Amino acid sequence: MPNWSSHIVPSRAPRRRFFAPRPRFVVPRRLAAAAIAIAAALLPAVPASAQWIPCPGQEDLVKVPVLAAPDSPDPEHPQPQILRGTVLLSDEQQRLTFRQPPAKKPGEAGATTRCAPQYVRAFRGVGAVPPPPPPASDSHYADPLPGPTLRARVGDLVQLTFLNQINPSNFGNSIDRGDQAKGSGCDESTNGYPTRVPGDGGDTFPNCFHGSSTANIHFHGTHTNPGSTGDMVFIEVRPSPRAGGKPVVTEESVREPFDKFFQDCKAQLLPDPLHQWPTTWSDLPASYTAKQEELIRKYDETPGIKPLWPVNEAQLKEGAWPQYYIGAYPYCFRLPEYTATTWPPPAPAPAAGHAAGAHGGGEGTAELAGAEPPARPLMMGQSPGTHWYHAHKHGSTAIDVSNGMTGAFIIEGKYDDELNKFYGKQWTRTQPVMVINQIGVTPNLERNSGTDAGEDFSVNGRLNPLVHMKPGEVQMWRIVNTSFRSGAYFLPPQNGFQWRQLAQDGVQFDDVNYQQSLNRPFLLAAGNRADLLVKAPTKPGAGCKDPRTCTYAFQVIVDIDPSDLTSLNPVTLLSVKLSGSAPEMRFIPSAPTFPPFLADIKSAEVKGTKKIVFATSGGLKTGAKHTIDGRKFSGEVGEVVLLNTVEEWTVINESYGPLISHPFHIHINPFQVVEVFSPNDPLLDDNGKPVPRIDPKTKQPATDSAGKPVFENKYTFSQHPLTGQCRLDRNHPDDWKPCDIPVQRQDLAWWDVFPIPSGAKLPDPDDPAKTINVPGHFKLRSRFVDYTGYYVIHCHILAHEDRGMMTIVEVAPLRSPYSHH
User: Around Cβ 280, how many Cβ atoms within 10 Å?
Assistant: First the structure.
């Protein structure tokens, strides 16, 4: 029997810069409390053998259940509708797949797949259609399934009841059961997590794995209110208490107060997409807040715990939004529609009786004069496209996402209208939604293993599902990489298939990028999305004589750094079966109309610059430290920007080994990338192949200690660079940058996740036995517009985020509220 004990948790087992120096801005105590809250211990038992069960065979791509807003009665002039639904978080036993032996890499010879039942946490949509598939007849366990696909339209309201009905007893003595005052506060395992050796840099609370039955929802890619009941990731919703084995907090128990709240929210947000509401707890129905206080106080009576209500009470006294909830939470926010035809939008007219510029102009002057302020225009809008959501409780994002607490969020708009006009009525709604994940039960770093690539990729919960196409058909694949760790590098299509990419990270391409995307390989790092038009061949490909039985593999490389492209094997993500016949389809000739608010950010718009350093130090396993600007997450604000301004950030990667291109993610606002410096890039010859390094002694191609060939680097400190090499000046690190920056930066794509190139150890020309650390970086530009408040930036390798690689961004009002006259 393979040694799987450190890999699988048994069913029901208890799992044990501005460039000048700037002041540090501290989050009010309401948020800092999140970083110092509750301590507990998690002690797993290590079983001797696995309960292996039959694995599924190849299945058709599963259609994930959908919660959707109703269509507007007048499609020609759509009016805001409401996406109203309930997302239920519970736990269930599922049949999970495990690569065996665990140390094998994806696609490596000798790797096999086995299945075992496991308790996992899962999102489900109450009343979503179609219903989830029934449990498998050969195992009697449900197979993994993402959370419900949410579907709404730009301009709509989103109103979701979130219920946490996890039974913590199925997951051992977790933080959600005990909150013990004693103990480390971190999950603990017999595999040595967290390490206790003095000075080894082991994890400490709150930057460790913990709190895996507490949850919230982050809506990935939404340009919306980051506070209260919008896209706020600082709240923590604990599981409902249970009576007679059943949850006390249910959809029915909160229906009346939530109905009232959603009506109030509609009245507040529909007239003005920039209005941020609610702002205080008193905006919620009193019956809900009173019941929450009662539930939390009752929870605090548990012997030996650190109480939660005093934290909420202190935050309420400051007029802040309280952090802790039990059982249920309402989400209500607007998907703002940009209605201007140009960018920037026209300036608002001055208020009546108040001359523009009479008191210096800008926000705040009309209020000081007592006149009605002019309406502030929307500076950006919600991008229609493929977005997603996932659990975002700091300390448990990795385990919850790998359990499957993710889902697609399709936001429709003019983008869809133009595609449907070309391909047919509501064509986009019939197209496949593909949620990629690495379904598992324990982050690799909690297993004290730093080399595991994570579980194999699943799509909608299945390994290598089957997609059906007709010869010559064009489909639109909405692909979301929700994996907690790995990227998927899509190799070019083969066997006569073709593709064109329509969008990146839920933001559509302009026509220049659309035209250039034909059959181009691309990387979906953890958190990335792509809309892809895929065309099947009109005739069978090589080796296939009967189109009714032809099946073709679409392959990817499991990637966390470009070095993986040469060291790892391709794996099959999904397969396409051709059958039937139909008229040949074609790619839409040009991309859908590009929204004006996505105009390229020009250099003249930039009003501030910063440097932000992501770094991993300490090597592999739990001794590694993951930091931003040298600090682990503490609840402090790391970056402050002013509302409705544009900044350019240099995002730096000081990880030099193992090579990790940390996927940088920012909430609320997308960004454009204007420069990428990847110091590990190889030197390529005229045919695009790496140039071998020649050993100066043997005059033969050099090899490393493992006998693998060594290639010349694109960047060098040598006084005599090879043809095509870029020489860096060792004495001027601020000038280390790419040597092939384009003269014009235009027609840029938009992102909300981008891998920061890893750092390189380049040979020191003065001492060949030494190397010089050269960090990688990219430069982004972003419009921090429309919404004030707190949100986060972090690494989207979620085990790194849980262990400290996250900080807070504060978007502050543009104008001071104070006057000197």
Answer: 13
